[in-house]
Amino acid sequence: MRIVFAGTPEFAVPSLRAIVDAGHEVVGVVTREDAPLGRKRVLTASPVAAAAQQLGLPLLKANRLDDAATEWVRGRGAELGVIVAYGGLVREPLLSLPAHGWINLHFSELPRWRGAAPVQRALQAGEQRLGVTVFRLVEALDAGEVLSRDSRQFAPGTSAGAALTELADFGTRALLAAVDALAANPSAGEPQAGEASYAHKLSRDDGRLDLAAPTGRVLAHWAGVTPEPGAFVTHEGQPLKLHAVEWAADRHAAGEPGAVGAVDLIDGRATLRLSDGALVLDRVQPAGKPAMDGAAWLRGRGGKAELS
Fold this sequence. Notes:
- This protein is 24% helix and 29% strand.
- The chain is built from seven helices and 18 strands.
- The chain is elongated, with a radius of gyration of 22 Å.
């Protein structure tokens, strides 16, 4: 099938490569424009742009799917549009331009967690079974007919970044199944069933952890906001980012001295006391400094600290 692909981040790349490897003709790739990255704000091509160039595919960089983008796609002669985390809306007349319309690989079991941050919000809510859904793109948000879906279980404390990486890989099976279903039957698809929920975009403030919450809830919150926008607490009035944490062993989960928010060196590891257990702080980042080993950070403070 002749396919135009739209996507931007790293976790969209496996879908693009899978479509090419399956023998479909990718007649064009649309991705967002180069963006400044890093401390030096160097203009950098998106991961999808880099992959498209490596594969020798026609490429359009555009931050909006406007009239110019629509005409570019029209010139590709695509039978199907595939979108995976492009970062913009597909509206008419582009939506109806390919003969089979557009399909979207979404990282939740729709209609649950429609919206911008499905994996992040699901993990924040304490969910461990995460899924993917391939559906027909319509004007309403993530509301089109379902073509295929899949799901799997993740361990507690799996970060959103790690979960997205795994979902991006195994989600390619659902995507290719949807393409095959449309090739066999252009009217394929079933209406979404169940109660819809929404995964609103995360802000920096969403990264602040509530240390008064139970340990499982704190870990789930950390997982949902890692790596972006990033989990943080406060130490001496300044934010302390928590890049890597884990549930403390049972012997640390109860009976240790100190109030909630106290951090002590236990067995050589920085261990954060919570209301019903503890978390090990493996990697932290103080304000204005690079990330470092949590135990090294704590030793620099005499082996004890108070977080809030």
